[in-house]
Amino acid sequence: AQTVTQSQPEMSVQEAETVTLSCTYDTSESNYYLFWYKQPPSRQMILVIRQEAYKQQNATENRFSVNFQKAAKSFSLKISDSQLGDTAMYFCAFRGSTLGRLYFGRGTQLTVWP
Amino acid sequence: EAQVTQNPRYLITVTGKKLTVTCSQNMNHEYMSWYRQDPGLGLRQIYYSMNVEVTDKGDVPEGYKVSRKEKRNFPLILESPSPNQTSLYFCASSPSAGRLNEQYFGPGTRLTVT
């Protein structure tokens, strides 16, 4: 089974600042997908960003960007200009060659304070 | 409106009393999946279904059953619930297993087994 590790159970950042959430994964596969999901207090799961392993360019979605280091098996999420609405649990997830299987990390609770 | 619905949203039950959590999607998706979320453990996949009559185990299938008799529904059955199945459960669907980036999650079912 693939493993996904989020080493920061909790983080906090002041509004308008930048924060980076870390994620590492373990796989022997070369083609795979990585995701970051956001879960606000409403418990809804929201896809924030995804990265295909074959793409060298880091994915970006507005204020959210990733730093994908394939050799290091690292996939961090950077949130710029943090907003109060970014307060949520963030999960890193991995999809490999086994279709339908999705592996999640344990999550990082991010709090954005005024 | 495209959505995944789960019922019930909240359930408190006793050990050994069979229960079913229903999941339905209105997007004609082929792929559906069940996850459980526990504090400190993130989301773990229970079962998934690539299409009607095709189901497969995820990471934590023990104590659960599923069936996929029709495309839109994917119920989760707990034949004899135990306290360690107290958790937050999510159903999800996507157009296919290879398109998990388009996965829709249901609102979650909070289950407590006493």
Radius of gyration of chain B: 13 Å
Biggest sheet details of chain A:
6 strands, mixed
Helix content of chain B: under 10%
User: What class do helices, strands and sheet pairing of chain B give?
Assistant: mainly beta
Q: What's the story with the biggest beta sheet of chain B?
A: 7 strands, mixed
Quick description:
The complex is a heterodimer of chains A (114) and B (114). Chain A is mainly beta and 114 residues long.
What labels describe this entry?
heterodimer, A: 114 residues, Immunoglobulin-like, four-stranded antiparallel β-sheet, globular, B: 114 residues, seven-stranded mixed β-sheet
Describe the structure.
The complex is a heterodimer of chains A (114) and B (114). Chain A has 114 residues and is mostly beta strands. Chain A has a single domain (3-113), classed as Immunoglobulin-like. In chain A, 0% of the residues lie in helices and 51% in strands. Chain A is built from no helices and twelve strands. In chain A, the strands form three sheets. In chain A, strands 2, 5, 6, 10, 11 and 12 form a six-stranded mixed beta sheet that branches. A four-stranded antiparallel beta sheet of chain A has the order 3-9-8-7, with no helix packed on it. In chain A, a hairpin with a 4-residue loop joins strand 8 (64-69) and strand 9. Chain A starts with a strand and ends with a strand. Chain B has 114 residues and is mainly beta. In chain B, 0% of the residues lie in helices and 50% in strands. Chain B has no helices and eleven strands. In chain B, the strands form two sheets. In chain B, strands 2, 4, 5, 6, 9, 10 and 11 form a seven-stranded mixed beta sheet that branches. Chain B has a four-stranded antiparallel beta sheet with strand order 1-3-8-7, with no helix packed on it. In chain B, strand 5 and strand 6 (54-57) form a beta hairpin. The chains are: A mainly beta (114), B mainly beta (114).
